[in-house]
Design a protein that fits this description.
The protein is mainly α and 87 residues long. It has one domain. The protein is built from 3 helices and 2 strands. Strands 1-2 form a two-stranded antiparallel ribbon. Strand 1 and strand 2 form a beta hairpin. Helix 1 packs antiparallel against helix 2 and helix 2 crosses helix 3. The mean pLDDT is 77.
């Protein structure tokens, strides 16, 4: 796993940091390293979109925003990073 993490970091450290252009590829590769399942295809009914790349969220005051799957993946990455650093 250490070699895969090193390759991932090397590959993405050279990125132009174009979030919209790269985020799905980045997250797909990150999930592969973490062993996390892929998101499901988006459905028309957001109530069925439990694990997708982007999901509409309605806040209590009525405001809606698109939330990226990145939050879940980055939480997993933090946990793996902490375990990796503890070695």
């Amino acid at each position: 796993m250490a070699a895969a993490v090193t390759q991932f970091i090397d590959r993405w450290s050279k990125s132009a940091a174009a979030e919209r252009a790269n985020y799905q590829l980045f997250l797909s590769e990150l999930r592969n390293i973490l062993g996390v399942a892929r998101p499901q295809p988006q459905q028309g009914d957001d109530a069925k979109n439990h694990y997708v790349f982007e999901r509409t969220v309605t806040f209590p005051e009525g405001r809606t925003e698109r939330i990226k799957e990145a939050f879940a993946a980055l939480g997993q990455a933090r946990k793996v990073g902490e375990r990796y650093a503890a070695r």
